[in-house]
């Protein structure tokens, strides 16, 4: 099913025309309502009239997370607080929180986008859906909640933190859908397996997001729970979950393009790259009122595809993320993305998808240790089996990254299963 | 005849071995013999106990990875040279030994726990040569 066929299936020409009209209006709006962005435009000698179509977008200056931090808390809002009806904030691991504000219309559009995404995942008004993202300042909980409610599904606002209650209600209510992070869903499936009640689960679909996950995790979730799992993407600065989602064909995530204009930029030149090429994803919020952003750099690495999908939607699709520009570690001079380790481990059946990278510096040399858990099916009573496996994994990582890593097999369930964003890197180097 | 050996994967961390033994103690599982194969990162604790299935169940409940596997517990005379005689028989048949460990009790017999590359073949060799094997339960009675 398609929630909004008029918007999700419009011809590319119509979409470009709509995006052009909205961008022209947005630039004028920003120039007059956001002094910070007006100054950015003035600095490069740009007037609103210089932007006549979506192609002119490359003339416009970028916006970064630092811009949001520098204008903490409300400096980039385009409307007075009397029109802001909701605030969200993302955790500030490296400084102040990033604060975002929504007008009533922004919230309506957000719910519309999440409704489109959840419909892509097959959610209908007949579903009972547990929302197990954190409710509160994090956009995940309330964002998914409003979208599911708009569809008319029966919404169970679980939030996170009480897995026992979640599994009990999942069974008692006969929940058919769940929205949560993929690592939390894997944890939930382990709990259900331990309780021996997997066969009583009525779940049909999961809408997972807020952290990167691999094809292997996707497969593991689908087989363990016997469900279909969908990838929903979003970031609070742009809106929250619902910016993009994958459909039943799983060939990239459909972007709600009439509201969020996506660009994929060459990391070196910051110029847009062609379809299929990898670069940094940037978004321009074409319709937002509270905190509109132009060319906001997400730091997520992806590629884009503008061809029509088998599902009938014409909206541009972004690929599963290939890493984050700022997750990049430099180990012995080599650029390493945790997602590469994740992808490499997919090749190794004997280990679970959970892993931890520990980077350290010993005698002025960087060291990388990759900790993995042995899959239960492959427990052994022979040292040489474990040693051979350690070698095999080290080889796979060497092939993928071009650096040697020490592989450490750890006890089952000993790596952190987070309820929020999974932590995969411990960097012990004191470089600054 | 095979006996069930209980193997536990243990990370090299202070106190971890004691935790495993604590679980067995709490559940009244008696250890008859053991071997600890250690590397710098982890160890494999191999145990012959009076109730291997219960041991595995309780360890799994406590989050330890454990495994039951078939090994031969071989009865040999408790005297000089008898172990070498046993190995001669096995070697002659071209079977590789993965690992072994022993226990001697206060009687005329000693016992060797042995795992070979081809366990079934070893069992046949032993039977053909009149060498006795016993189970964990029988061992517990001695």
Number of helices of chain B: 5
Largest sheet of chain B: 7 strands, antiparallel
Shape of chain A: globular
**Approximate helicity band of chain B:** 25-40%
* Helix content, binned percent of chain A: 25-40%
Question: If you compute it from the alpha carbons, what radius of gyration of chain A comes out, rounded to the nearest whole angstrom?
Answer: 22 Å
How does the SSE layout of this entry go?
The complex is a heterodimer of chains A (432) and B (142).
Chain A: H1 5-8, H2 12-33, H3 35-43, H4 65-70, E1 84-90, E2 98-103, H5 104-120, E3 128-131, H6 139-151, E4 154-156, H7 163-173, E5 177-180, H8 182-194, E6 205-209, H9 215-225, E7 228-235, E8 240-246, E9 253-255, E10 260-265, E11 279-285, E12 296-302, E13 304-305, E14 317-318, E15 323-324, E16 329-331, E17 334-336, H10 338-345, E18 351-362, E19 365-374, H11 383-401, E20 406-410, E21 425-427
Parallel strand pairs in A: 3-4, 3-5, 5-6, 6-7, 18-21, 19-20
Antiparallel strand pairs in A: 1-2, 7-8, 8-9, 9-14, 10-11, 11-12, 12-15, 13-14, 16-17, 18-19
Helix pairs in contact in A: 2-3, 5-6, 8-9, 10-11
Chain B: E1 3-11, H1 16-26, E2 31-38, E3 42-49, H2 52-61, E4 66-77, H3 82-92, E5 97-104, E6 109-116, H4 119-128, E7 133-134, H5 136-141
Antiparallel strand pairs in B: 1-3, 1-4, 2-3, 4-6, 4-7, 5-6
């Amino acid at each position: 099913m398609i929630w909004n066929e008029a918007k999700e299936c419009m011809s590319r020409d119509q979409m470009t025309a709509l995006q052009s009209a909205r961008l022209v209006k947005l630039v004028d709006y920003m120039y007059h309502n956001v002094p910070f962005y007006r100054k950015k435009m003035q600095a490069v000698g740009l007037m609103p009239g210089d932007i006549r179509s979506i192609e002119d977008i490359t003339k416009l200056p970028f916006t970064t997370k630092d811009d949001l931090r520098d204008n903490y808390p409300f400096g980039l809002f385009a409307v007075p607080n009397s029109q802001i009806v909701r605030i969200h904030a993302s955790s500030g691991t490296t400084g102040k929180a990033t604060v975002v504000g929504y007008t009533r219309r922004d919230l309506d559009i957000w719910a519309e986008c999440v409704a489109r995404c959840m419909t892509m995942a097959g959610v209908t008004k007949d579903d009972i859906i547990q929302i197990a993202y954190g409710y509160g300042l994090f956009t995940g909980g309330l964002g998914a909640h409003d979208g599911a409610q708009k569809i008319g599904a029966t919404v169970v606002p679980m939030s996170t933190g009480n897995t026992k209650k979640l599994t009990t209600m999942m069974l008692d209510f006969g929940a058919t859908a769940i929205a949560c992070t993929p690592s939390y869903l894997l944890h939930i499936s382990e709990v259900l397996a331990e309780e021996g009640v997997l066969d009583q689960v009525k779940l049909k679909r999961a809408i997972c997001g807020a952290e990167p996950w691999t094809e292997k995790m996707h497969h593991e979730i689908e087989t363990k729970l016997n469900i279909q799992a969908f990838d929903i993407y979003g970031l609070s600065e742009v809106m929250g979950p619902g910016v993009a989602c994958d459909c039943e064909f799983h060939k990239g995530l459909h972007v709600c393009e009439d509201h969020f204009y996506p660009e994929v930029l060459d990391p070196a030149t910051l110029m847009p790259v062609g379809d299929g090429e990898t670069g940094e994803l940037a978004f321009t919020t074409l319709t937002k009122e509270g905190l509109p952003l132009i060319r906001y750099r997400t730091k997520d690495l992806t590629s884009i595809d503008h061809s029509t999908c088998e599902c009938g939607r014409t909206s541009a699709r972004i690929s599963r993320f290939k890493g984050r520009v700022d997750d990049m570690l430099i180990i012995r001079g080599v650029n390493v993305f945790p997602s590469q380790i994740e992808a490499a481990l997919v090749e190794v059946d004997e280990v679970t998808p959970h892993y931890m990278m520990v980077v350290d510096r010993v005698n002025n040399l960087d060291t990388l240790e990759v900790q993995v858990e042995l899959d239960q099916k492959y427990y052994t009573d022979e040292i040489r089996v474990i040693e051979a496996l350690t070698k095999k994994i080290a080889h796979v990582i060497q092939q993928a990254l071009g650096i040697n890593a020490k592989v450490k097999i750890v006890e089952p369930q000993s790596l952190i299963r987070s309820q929020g964003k999974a932590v995969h890197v411990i960097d012990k180097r004191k470089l600054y | 005849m095979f006996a069930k050996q209980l193997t536990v994967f243990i990370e090299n961390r202070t106190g971890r071995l004691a935790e495993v033994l604590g679980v067995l103690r709490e559940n009244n599982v008696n250890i008859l013999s053991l071997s600890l194969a250690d590397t710098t990162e982890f160890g494999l604790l191999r145990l012959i106990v009076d109730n291997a299935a219960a041991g595995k169940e309780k360890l799994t409940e406590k989050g330890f990875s454990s495994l039951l596997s078939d090994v031969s517990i071989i009865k040999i005379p408790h005297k000089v040279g008898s172990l070498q005689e046993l190995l001669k028989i096995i070697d002659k048949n071209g079977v590789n030994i993965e690992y072994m460990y022993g226990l001697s009790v206060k009687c005329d017999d000693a016992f060797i726990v042995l795992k070979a590359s081809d366990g079934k073949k070893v069992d046949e060799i032993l039977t053909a040569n009149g060498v006795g094997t016993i189970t964990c339960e029988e061992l517990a009675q001695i």
